[in-house]
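WARN retry 2 of 3 for item q-0093 after timeout on previous attempt; input resubmitted unchanged.
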Amino acid sequence: MRKAISDVGCGELANRICRERCGSYLTTSYIFGIFCLATYSTLAAEPAPPGPFTETECITCHTERDPNLIRQWREGSHSADSGIGCSNCHGENHKESAIIARKDQSCTGCHEGPASHSYSTSKHGIITRLEEARQDWRQPLQRGNYRTPGCSYCHLHNSDHGDTMAPDRGPEVRQWICAGCHSPRYVRELFANGNRQLEIADLKLTEGESLIASAVDDQTDALPKLRKSLNHHRHNVLLGIAHQSPDYQWWHGQPALDGDLIRIRDRILQSRRRKSLADNLEE
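OK item q-0093 returned
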């Protein structure tokens, strides 16, 4: 069948078949549509070769099959410019390539540190880890298909190869994904609570930045380190909200910011005392 299509063209072959079977011609566009639809369904059902495949082979094939997927990948954070390709997430073989990419290990192997730790200590992360062996990872990453969401369910939802949780997607996308498992009212309350927590964290960050800016006499690297710690703990609050990790909302987040403010004030007070003592000695 493939040889015939390549030799005579889809429309001509369709008319030939119709002439032989029906004794007449049909319009080329009508036949073309019917014949190619049937041919595509037949070819689409054919299993892909097992592999292994090179990066170029993956991109070439999927550019023809699903150009939108390749466009998302090229424009997303996992593009070729990042050094991450198809095989990093899917492996080199076609068998179970989707299953491999859907499991958390494909993400946490690269995304180490607070991002993966805040998720792994959340209720979602713990349930996913405990029930990994019972989960049907063949299911598409679509609303309600999973007992609890893993990394890919939220960030690559519906096989989106960008990042469905990226800030530029807007809160509506995130709310829609969460509402696949939770009630709309619960999701609204969750987001409202998260926004309040971020507002409090930002107030602490602003206060810390103002205190550091006022410490013109301290020329050591102590305050820059405290500023870095301040921003790090504010980011922990964000991760705790996003992954619903109590440890990162609180222990590694809000109280840690309180500790940063205490240390900043203490540092400034010590610096002023030393300066005052030095001035008195000079007199």
